[in-house]
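BUG: 3D viewer hangs when loading the predicted structure for this chain

Environment: internal workstation, default settings.
Expected: structure renders.
Actual: progress bar stalls at 90%.

Input used:
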Amino acid sequence: MKRILSFYIIREIASLFLLGIAVFTLILLMGRLIKLTELVVSRGVPLADVSRMILYLMPSFLVFTIPMAFLLAVLLAFGRLSADNEITVIKASGISLMQIMPPVLLCALLAAMMTLAAGLVGVPWGNSAFKELSFKVLKLNVSATIHEKVFWDEIPGMVLYTEHYDEQRHALQGVIIHDGRNPGRPMTIFARDGIISGGSGRQALRLSLLSGSIHAAGKGDEYRLVTFGEYVLTVGAQGGVAALARNEQDMNADELQSRIADKSTPVQTRLKMLSELHGRYAFPCASLVFAFMAVPLGIRNRRSGKSAGFSISLGILLVYYLMLSLLRTLAERGDIPPFIALWLPNVVFLCIGWYLLRMASLERTLPVPRLADVTGMLKKVWSR
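Structure tokens produced before the viewer hung:
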């Protein structure tokens, strides 16, 4: 009987889980679809290239949508089981709430493994491929992307501004370029004239600048000024995307570990990479944590319907992501060790989930704080 019940619960969760992934991924993709549609309409980019861009973006979406979809699926599944009195029948058969948890935890483990694979393998591959393809499209359509007196940031890590632009000759006048591809040594370039064109290397973009100066900042108060008659700036000449700006999200786990161990890596960059590395392992565990919270909340939500289950899932996700974002910012600033900051939300939500599950298994009423008490507590935390 337990085997039949386990397959029944897994089937209930799986159908809602797949539907949740599709819905949440589509919602996140909507923000990108506007810009991707513009590539097809205004720049004449082939639809096949746009489809590849969407494919490359999918891993970065799945990292977020898989835990979200799993939380919603468990809430809705157990909400329906409770509303149809199936939970009551299961308990009357001598099966406790704790004995129902193994199939839920199995689904949570599968969701965690999917998120882990998307974060460790899919995100670095997708981000790197997306940047390389975007740069290829940019090079072929550079004349349609640059506009006079508009900041142009199509190249990752660079911002270009020009007073006048001749689309026929690709000639620039009154050029200002901020090159931040090297975070340890950003520089700003001023030039009277310039010409933008494709370079000789694979996927290279060439900026030929005339009569200008380079202002570079270094460590501490170090400052360097260089004037030039002609300066050639080439982007992506060697190694494709490797020559573009690469941040911690474009690197796999081995690259992150090697850069972290490198003593020449700036402290601020090392903290960001440590946070990214711990986040790729900590975030997939959110599915396991959500399993302990969703089951008791879903059972308690028997009369409120699917809309309430959706609202509860959004509330939990909002609190979790806000907490994670705040702690990650503190970790990147060096205020909290990255290991503690990235794993603390899982620990906090796991304790809350275990408490809720324990109360539900003992069939005790969950304490619901009054709005005035919550407001007073938030005011005390804010003042501190």
